[in-house]
Amino acid sequence: MATQANAKSRTKKRSVKSKPKPRTRRYDDRLQGLIEISPNWYYWEQDEKYRFTHFSGSIFQKAGIDTRRYLGKPRWDLDWVPAGDSNWEQHRAVLDAHQPFTEFLFKYTMPAGETRYVNTSGQPVFDRKGKFTGYRGISRDVTRRIWIERRLTIERAAAQVLAESNSVAEAMPKIIRAICEHLQWACGMHWIIDEPTQALHCAEAWGVSAPGIDEFIAATRRLSPLTVDTKGLIRLTCANAEPVWISDVTREASFRRAPDALQAGLRGAFAFPIKAETQVIGAMEFYSSEIQQPDAELLKGVAYVGGGIGQFCKRRQAEEELLRFHAAVDVSGDPIYLIDRATMRFIDVNETAIRMTGYSREELLKLGPHDISLMDRQEIE
Fold first, then answer.
1. What is the pLDDT of residue 214?
2. Angle at CA 19, nearest 5°, toward 18 and 24?
3. Which of 15, 309, 321, 352 is deepest in the core (most CB within 10 A)?
4. Percent of the chain as helix, strand, coil, to the nearest 5
5. Is-contact 155 306, C-beta < 8 A?
């Protein structure tokens, strides 16, 4: 009998050892495996007071981040800042109600100064008796997506301003403000190049209402005019006809306004050229109150914006020159006719010509010189 009992016992033990893992455990293991090899995802856990107790994911090792400094702290006690539509008040209300949450967006600064954006989602955890024990969830680095969205937003905003503006002087302050507000940067300036002298001077500026910003803009205006060469942010941009990024202008030896920027609390900066086809006709520069690492997507977007502004400037310049031409010829006492040689039709006439012929402008633009002269078309040609 003892032998039979021992045999049954061994059989039972073998059956326990060969019992498959629960399905949820298998799924957890698979998810954990995917997170460990993902460059953008990580897994986290919190206790009943929302303090972090666990992190896992290769993203931390690749970024050189020691997660031990996060343990024992809730999310809002870290150097993380809500971004987009997210805010701490609403987030804490969801946690206190022990509800799941998704797509909570925040940003943080890397050791090297680069800003990263993270989307996080979590679900509450309860024990077998239904007692709340904390949260667990996953987070994803969405920095590149944010950069692309921001670039497209700036491109659309600039295009809308140009479409609604009648002059360069009207458009530029609006574009500067739109870019600053979308980026949450402090100020910006528009520089133009005088064609005869090739000198740069600050034509337009906009800044937030903050200590030191007006003084920095005033210091910028005092720099005018500048020569286009390879020193400094705006001059280097115009000389190379490419966007330029400076992570911290207060540490840049070639940046002449470093003391003014430091006093105004400005650090990161970028500039981009304004091009009319291949010709650089000006540039724009922007400043942030934070150290900013280069944003490739943003630079790609503002280069496109610079081309659009350049086309707008040239078009408005041509329209203004045409208006000045009309004003000049209209006061002339002599009749003036502009003729298209291909069609032998009038393409423009002045007021004196209208008065002397007795035709309206609209009527004359449907005629040619042979229609109002005794000479035939061949003789006139």
1. 96
2. 135
3. 309
4. 45, 25, 30
5. no
Closest CA to 240 of 267, 271, 217, 265: 271
pLDDT at 72: 95
CB-CB contact of 241 with 275 (8 Å): yes
- Residue type at 44? W
In the chain the beta strands, taken as DSSP E runs, fall at 41-46, 52-56, 81-82, 101-109, 115-126, 132-141, 187-194, 199-207, 226-227, 244-246, 269-276, 279-287, 337-340, 345-349
Q: Quickly state the pLDDT bin for 42 (edges 50, 70, 90).
A: confident
Residue 13 has pLDDT above 70, yes or no: no
Question: What is the strand order of the sheet 41-46 is part of?
Answer: 52-56, 41-46, 132-141, 115-126, 101-109, 81-82
How many whole angstroms separate alpha carbon 260 and alpha carbon 269? 14
* Nearest residue to 160 (alpha-carbon basis) of 146, 186, 182, 178: 178
Q: What is the largest CA-CA distance in the chain?
A: 138
Most confident residue range from 55-59, 86-90, 115-119, 337-341: 86-90
8 A C-beta contact, residue 206 and residue 214: no
| Spatial CA neighbour of 297 closest among 274, 276, 270, 273 | 270
At residue 18, the pLDDT reads 45
CA 29 to chain centre: 39
Q: Dihedral angle at the C-alpha atoms of 110, 115, 120, 125, nearest 10 degrees?
A: 30
The arithmetic mean of pLDDT across residues 323-342, rounded, is 80
Residues in the chain: 381
